[in-house]
Amino acid sequence: YQVIILCGLSLWVTISSSFNVTQKLRSVTQPWVTRRVAYGTPIILKIQKYQHPYLDALFSGLSCVVSVPFYTAFLPLLFWTGHCALARQMTLLMAFCDYVGNCIKDVISAPRPSSPPVRRITATRDEVENAMEYGLPSSHTLNTVCLSGYLLHYILAFTGANGASAQVVGLSLVCLLVFLIGLGRIYLGMHSLIDIISGVVFGLGILAIWLSVSGLIDEFVVSGQNVISFWVILSFVLLFAYPTPERPTPSFEFHTAFNGVSLGIVVGVHQTFQQFHHENVPRVFFSPQFTVFKLGGRLLVGLPTILVVKLCIKSLSKCVLPVVANALGIPVRSRNVASVEAKKQSVGFIKKFLFFTDEKKQSFDLDTGIRLLQYAGLAWSVVDLVPSLFAILGL
To answer: InterPro entries given for it (predicted)?
Structure first.
């Protein structure tokens, strides 16, 4: 089945490129969505009539809490507090959500609400980058539905709270959070109502799929065969299976980052499951030997370590990848000078054999490779290197 999956994805890439599937889907969906975004402008303006600095701060804060940088910090915390199964499931689910949501965004390439007349609030650098993406679906809404829904599922299963009252309270809290996130995205001028609705619909669909296959995926990651080789090839194929948007956006960069994160998590967990990630690992607040002070020590050691690893791998990749590309004769493109030199010198046998004619289309984006490796290294350090340091230091 591993071969079938990889061959199926490769075949899809070939077919979609040959028959311009992305452009055909866009020609059907983009006009309809664009009209709905325009029709939704009066609703946004009505909501923004109640603008207030406190509401600006509230909804900007909520957007940060469910953003990609937040989960980048939150997911390592789950690993280091002993909730390893939840951490790896939410990491892979986040990567899945990010891939599907951003693919839909860039296939449709529908605009965000026009500003002006809509007032758009981008209080953080992350929000500025988000505003450069296309609108439908709302990633914040989609991710909130999936991740808060899965978190509720995990908590109910972990605590054994199967009573109707616990389920109703949990579901009510999740619905309230989704409502506030959706309302906040409209209030901030980032999305129209159709973006929010589509985020909820796609989020529920992805969550339903994930709940049905998460057990199989987790079993494969933990104890499957050919796990590392399969996931390395899968991560590489997914870079090419991503659709080309109407204009460049940061969506592909976000996908590449979480693609690398999922690769690093899978490699690290598969190699060290019996040492650091099995079900009997002590959990903070649930094990007397795992105190809050020990958690503080883990954070003081872990966070600087993963940041150093990320910077080191980024610097190393910038030096090594151009050399490898030059040796293999693979044409590359990049925004940095060293990579451009490698691109000019890449005239080896592979390039001649493949008959590259359109250099921009056939060359490999070196920045993508660097980003994939640095986030894979960061994630690997979270689940392998840092837990090894904890063991050495008695944390």
So the answer is: PAP2/HPO (IPR000326), PAP2/HPO_sf (IPR036938)
pLDDT of 334 above 80: no
Cβ-based neighbours of 348, under 8 Å, separated by 6 or more:
326, 327, 328, 329, 330
Catalytic site includes residue 140:
yes
Three-state DSSP state, 333:
strand
Type and span of the H or E element at 364 = strand 364-365
Given CA atoms 309, 314, 318, 321 in this order, what sign does their dihedral have? positive
DSSP single-letter state for residue 19? T
* Long-range Cβ pairs for the range 54-57 (8 Å, 24+): 55/187, 56/121, 56/123, 56/188
How large is the average pLDDT for residues 154-180?
85
pLDDT digits 0-9 by tens, 187-196: 988 899 999 9
How far is it, in rounded angstroms, from Cα 383 to Cα 387?
6
C-alpha–C-alpha distance, residues 245 and 253, integer Å: 13
Catalytic residue among 52, 83, 153, 191: 191
Tokens at 72, concatenated: 């980048």
pLDDT exceeds cutoff 70 at 351 = no
Please tell me the predicted confidence (pLDDT) of residue 285: 63
User: What residue segments make up the domains of the chain, in order of their start?
Assistant: 1-393
Average confidence score pLDDT of the chain: 83
Distance, in Å, from the CA atom of 233 to the CA atom of 383, rounded to the nearest integer, reads 21
Catalytic residue among 140, 153, 270, 277: 140
Burial 216-233, CB ≥16 within 10 A → b, else e: ebbebbbebeebeebbeb
- Determine the length of the chain: 395
286 falls in which pLDDT band (50, 70, 90)? Answer: low
